[in-house]
Amino acid sequence: MKKILILLILSIFAVFPALSDVIVKDAETGNPLPSASVKVKCLGKDCPEKEYYARTDKDGKIFPLKGNLLELKISYIGYEPVVDTVNTRDVREILLKPVSIITDEVVTTGQFIPQSAQKSVFTVNVISNEVIKDQSATDLRELMLKQMNININQDNILGSSMMINGITGQNVKILVDGVPMIGRLNGNIDISQVNLNDVDRIEIVEGPMSSVYGTDALAGVVNIISKTPDKKTSLNINSYYESVGKANFDGKVSFPVGDVNVSLNGGRNFFGGYSIVDTSRWRQWKPKIQYFAGLQASTSFDDINIRYSGSWFNEFILNRGQRLGPYYENAWDDKYYTNRINNSLFLNTRVGDHKYISLTTNYSFYQREKETYFKDLVNLTETLKDDSTSSNIDKFDLFMIRATYSSDRPVEYLSWQTGVDVNVETARGKRINGDTRDIGDYAMFLGLQYEPFGNLLIQPTLRAIHNTRYDAPIVPTLNIKFTPADKFNIRGTYARGFRAPSLKEKFYDFVDDNHEIIGNPDLRAERSHSVHVDFDYRIESDDYAIKFEPKLFYNFIEDHITLVRKDTIGLSYLNRNIGEFSSLGANLAATYFTRDLMFKLGFVYTGTNYNLDEASSGEFNYSPELHSNFSYLYDPWDIKLSAVYKFVSSHRELRISVTSDIIEYDLDDYHILDFTLSKPLFDNIFVLNAGVKNLFDVKNVGDSGSGGHAGGGELPISYGRTMFVSLAINFDEL
Fold first, then answer.
1. Tens digit of pLDDT for each residue in 630-644?
2. Is the distance from CB of 430 to CB of 511 less than 8 angstroms?
3. Which of 17, 119, 490, 526 is 20–30 Å from 409 (CA)?
4. Model pTM?
5. How far apart are alpha carbons 106 and 118 in whole angstroms?
6. Which helix H or strand E contains 505, and what residues bound it?
């Protein structure tokens, strides 16, 4: 019996050799960190278990440890995670560096130089690449549909547009790496054409940015920041399937060529269309196929950084018509083709101590082609209808150059930036009144940052504009940031805005079976006044953080441009200055963070008012909104659960008739709720996402009024509840 006991003890020590202590400590204080989470991977041959989880005890010692050579992945609330390899026969101390639970992103939109969002004089909301992945958003429309204080308008031919602070999409400037997108239809960029496959983050500034970015920025700016190629060779492949009939595939490869870092990306998005009632031909949501590709190349030498970015986008939309009586053997079909080509060159350099020059040049091309066919449904032949309204090609191009010179603190308490901004757009096509039209916008701007005290920052900005078609005013903005206490910021903004009508609003006639939108060469430019006050207060500890963000805003627009009914019968519309428009409201958001958990709850209350040339509505129409965002990482299984919820209450909106009569209509309330589960596999080589979108099965919302080229009666929101799955394959170093 004694011999058996001795052999048993010896065998235990053979499996678990003598181990020394591995202790986890605070890198700054040297104090042990109890209850730290440790993922242990055994790398040697003496492995009772290949992978398991451990914890640190009250003295910071990791227990249990099994084996000699181990890889430890250590995480602790309020500290940077550490991955280290240890030999358990040696005494080791592993030091964790304290960090804030709330990530402070570096932003570039409207800044003199890139800096943290906390230091920015105006509020910049950042949607990170991680959030985009958590929500499994495939395009900008899907992402923005669930964002707080942003509403989406959907036209299933003209596309999707967004509204910020109650102000419509023609006043929202959409940028890609600071370069404006062209190709507005009905005054709006179709944001469903903006793919997110190569996006690093999205920066949103609510409120007028006309002094910095010029026309189209009365409501705010959405800046899509691309990923820049790095020095390592990597390969990423993404596939996505959704039960409504979406199937997407894209990929990206990055590699160095000498001193130049290069990345190539491309993909295909397919959507088979959707309709609540299956007519076998006509679809409310039109079938579409998108192809896209991109090239980026960057290099650095001395203090100079140069980057080229080129992209190509192609979209095909098929609008199958209803069968024609009496025998239902024929139909009219429309085919829409969109092409975008974008070429940008960026140069950034330091020319002295705290002095910087930034130069951006861009040429963008946009083409939309429509073809109408008479379809024989018996022998499946097609005959092109060749006239200016049924079949046509419209082309738009933009040349842009923007150069800035910034000096950061040349004298104490003072920084400044000056620059020039040139945008020249040309339109050509049969539906352009006059066949070819152009408009130029030439501007100079100057901004100062004055910090008389450590807790007060004042930034005035002036923009002088020469527009080739309109007399433009001097556009001023005043931003103030005050920090009365640690982790408490108050930001205030007064801004003037200016928006020249686009070439499409003035000269473009869009006519098909569902639309008749007529350009108006007599449009006047819009001018605006805006006041915004934002608060930002943080509570932080080692275990959690809470962030409060109340906001107040007021916007007033003169000579507001909107579509009005051209006649009392049919769906014919005309762009027109209708008088004055105002929006006001308040936001309140609170976010709770831990290392593994994020929960955000927000409330928005927005009112809009039309004060027409000949009549006044007299009252604001208010629209409440509730927003919630949640994510949780279950560390033992390395699974992340994400959910996003948005509630828009029933509210009253207005349309304006050609006689300036107010047409009121009510929209029903609706709820949007998405769930996503994410699981990395094989050391993050594979990432599997699956979930459900639009859990409450929202499709259309009721519209009790008449009119509106959306069709009257109901407005489309989504195509109902769907299931999705996606798989990403990542080889970060080849």
1. 999 998 898 999 999
2. no
3. 490
4. 0.84
5. 9
6. helix 503-507
| Cα–Cα dist 663/646, whole Å | 27
Q: What is the DSSP letter of 303?
A: T
Contact 224, 202 (CB under 8 A): yes
Q: Are the C-beta atoms of residues 483 and 538 closer than 8 Å to each other?
A: no
pLDDT digits 0-9 by tens, 373-416: 999 999 989 999 877 667 788 899 999 999 999 987 767 788 89
CB 430 within 8 A of CB 388: yes
Distance from C-alpha of 1 to C-alpha of 8, rounded to nearest angstrom: 11
What is the secondary structure of 17-83 as a DSSP string?
Answer: -----EEEEETTT--B-TT-EEEEEE-SS--S-SEEEEEE-TTSBEE---SSEEEEEEE-TTB--EE
Where b means 16+ CB within 10 Å and e means fewer, 248-271 reads bebebbbbeeeeebbbebbbebeb
Comparing C-alpha atoms, which of 371, 376, 283 is closest to residue 328? Answer: 376
312 touches 338 (CB < 8 A): no
CB 724 within 8 A of CB 242: yes
Tokens standing for residue 590: 């609170």
Give 369's Cβ-side CA count (13 Å radius): 9
pLDDT, tens digit (0-9, with 9 covering 90-100), for 702-722: 765 443 333 445 778 888 999
Cβ atoms 577, 560 nearer than 8 A: yes
What's the rounded Cα separation, in Å, for the pair 270 and 715? 23
3-state secondary structure of 345: strand
